[in-house]
Write a structure and sequence with these properties.
- GO terms for molecular function: alpha-galactosidase activity.
- Residues 424-553 form the Right handed beta helix domain.
- It holds the Pfam family Beta-barrel_GLAA-B_II.
- By secondary structure, the chain is mainly β.
- The strands form four sheets. It has a 22-stranded parallel beta sheet that branches.
- The longest helix is centred in the N-terminal third of the chain and has 23 residues, at 2-24.
Length: 604
């Protein structure tokens, strides 16, 4: 009897302790998480416990943890912008709800081609206080230490962790037990103010005569012709092998999730994009730092785009983040585009993604409104609502619509989903040394860009899409660009405006359609270095007000300060251009222009 009573007391105490643990959160250390061991199995066990118990918090004690692919969960994933296929995942968050993962400031070191976080079909997920570093990657840098013009050779010093080798007289990296060839992408040229400009390499594989190893991590490279760099430049290389395409993953992949918050997270030397978010909504990034690995002296943090939202909806908020050393666009928001390859009936079509990197990605749901675009005439055909979807394979789908199509809808017509147009807010972020666009937004949702510092090599802000290349014509509606600081990352010859609004679907003079409307650019500071601060087309209701423009003495203002084409209801009021030389405007087919109280800007 006493034994039964004792057992009952112990059982109740155990239940109470477990209940208290679930209430306060599950600690991953209880499942064998140790700094000296592979953390992957322990994290999988801890996540299973969270899922089964309904725990609202997973606590990871502060430390440095290593993740290896040997015992990671493997899933077949559709990754827009990368190859679909099997991925090894460190944190598989699939069908989770109301969970906080707190890393307590820990560092996660990823070995091999790991996908750190897969967030799939989840609701209300928060991931915070984590530093992610990738040990092995598919790209790297080397500093030019010596240049010999007479001998047509130069030497480079690379990071030892990149594991560059010489195989058959060429640079290579070892992956999976085999040597993969390396391609020279280009050169980073450091500037006096700490920023860098990028030049593509003119050295093809056939242009390299010989490569020899020197001391560990140092190489001697002989080239043909006048293709020598300068001492101090950074050589940027990447593996050109297709064997790695199916392994490269972002640091975070969000798919079909709602209410995801990533906060106080740092990511260094990612092999692919930093974040890819697909068909998700209400995503918030706060204090996300994507910076070069300063410990090993890198200038780049990512060789592709940084953060990419594709086919998302509801709201995207990015605040207090730092992006630096990104080769592509730092932040990009866009949608998927399909092409009709078969008109089956008057309201049914067979479609295929225009880009193989979009194969298998979800384009629409029943009830979404789709826009049909005639590519031959670059004009809008019609809009219809999806009533049924049939997925046959990753490359081919069939769509039913609520009404019959006009005759202009035929093979080759493009489809764009206008129901998935998220509201975007970027506030208090810092963009520096971005080689591509700082911010690239293709959405009809409300846009607020406020209090950011942006320095990029192309457009600091690119709005509306690029129909010729991205197949994503978008109608902007309610855009507010306020109190930002804009700078140029490089002083190239191209006159890429700091803010670009465009393009238009039809460029025929008889077309009076104004795609974009209600755009306000107010209270910003521009350091334009002789370039245009704004280029806008097909916009109605454009207000450029109380902005200040500085032009350094070294940059002659030979370009128009503002370029407008086919716009109406435009107000340019109270702006200041601070330079001895008066700036001018370029105005074509602009009506209802209000221009007054502008300093240093010549009236059109």
């Amino acid at each position: 009897m006493k034994k039964n009573v004792l057992f009952f007391i112990l059982f109740i105490a155990t239940i109470q302790a477990y209940g208290q643990q679930v209430h306060d959160g599950i600690n991953a250390a209880q499942f064998g998480l140790r700094e000296q061991k592979d953390a992957t199995p322990a994290i999988l066990k801890a996540l299973d416990a969270c899922y089964e118990s309904g725990a609202s918090r997973l606590i990871i004690p502060k430390g440095t943890y290593h993740f290896y692919p040997d015992y990671a969960l493997e899933e077949y994933l559709t990754l827009t912008g990368a190859s679909n296929g099997l991925r090894r995942i460190a944190f598989p968050l699939i069908n989770f709800e109301d969970l906080v993962i707190d890393g307590s400031g820990s560092t996660f070191i990823m070995h091999g081609m790991m996908l750190p976080f897969e967030v799939q079909e989840c609701k209300n997920i928060s991931i915070r206080n984590i530093n992610i570093r990738f040990v092995s990657s598919v790209w790297g840098e080397g500093t030019v230490t010596e240049v010999n013009k007479d001998g047509s050779f130069f030497t480079i010093e690379t990071n030892r962790g990149d594991s560059l080798e010489v195989s058959n007289g060429a640079l290579s990296i070892k992956n999976g037990g085999e040597n993969l060839p390396v391609e020279i992408v280009g050169w980073l040229r450091p500037g006096t103010s700490g920023n860098c400009s990028f030049s593509p390499s003119s050295i093809e594989s056939s242009g390299i005569i010989s490569v020899k190893p020197l001391s560990h991590g140092n190489f001697w490279i002989e080239v043909r012709g006048n293709k020598l760099p300068r001492k101090g430049w950074k050589l940027v290389w990447e593996s050109d092998s297709e064997r790695l395409e199916g392994k490269i993953s972002p640091a975070f992949h969000l798919s079909g999730s709602d209410g995801v918050r990533l906060s106080n997270i740092s990511i260094a030397h990612a092999p692919g994009k930093v974040i890819v978010a697909e068909q998700s909504g209400n995503v918030m990034l706060d204090r996300l730092n994507v910076l070069p690995d300063s410990v090993v002296g890198r200038k780049l943090s990512v060789l592709t785009d940084g953060v990419h939202f594709i086919g998302c909806q509801k709201k995207i908020v990015i605040s207090n983040c730092k992006f630096s050393g990104i080769m592509g666009d730092a932040v990009s928001v866009s949608g998927l585009t399909l092409k009709i390859i078969k008109r089956i009936t008057n309201n049914v079509v067979g479609v295929r993604p225009v880009n193989e990197k979009q194969w298998g990605s979800q384009f629409a749901q029943v009830g979404d409104t789709i826009r049909f675009i005639d590519t031959k005439k670059s004009s809008l055909c019609c809009e219809r609502v999806v009533t049924r979807i049939r997925d046959l394979n990753e490359q081919y789908q069939e769509f039913w619509f609520d009404r019959a199509f006009p005759e202009t809808v035929r093979e080759g017509t493009l489809l764009s989903n206008i129901s998935r147009q998220p509201e975007v807010v970027l506030r208090g972020n810092r963009f520096s040394n971005i080689i591509g666009n700082g911010i690239n937004l293709q959405t009809s949702g409300k846009i607020i860009v406020e209090g950011n510092i942006i320095r990029s090599g192309r457009h600091d802000i690119n709005l509306g899409g690029e129909f010729a290349s991205a197949f994503q014509p978008i109608m902007l509606d309610q855009v507010f660009i306020k109190n930002n600081t804009f700078r140029r990352c490089s002083t190239g010859k191209a006159n890429d405006a700091l803010i670009m609004i465009g393009p238009i679907i039809s460029d025929t003079p008889a077309d009076t359609t104004y795609f974009h409307k209600d755009v306000t650019i107010e209270g910003n500071t521009f350091y334009n270095e002789g370039k245009s601060i704004l280029a806008a087309v097909a916009t109605s209701g454009l207000v450029v007000r109380q902005n200040t423009v500085f032009n350094p003495a070294s940059a002659k203002m030979t370009n128009s300060l503002i370029r407008l084409q086919r716009c109406k209801k435009v107000g340019i009021v109270g702006n200041r251009y601070l330079d001895k030389q008066e700036a001018r405007l370029q105005v074509e087919q602009v009506s209802d222009l209000l221009f007054f109280d502008n300093e240093g800007i010549k009236a059109p």
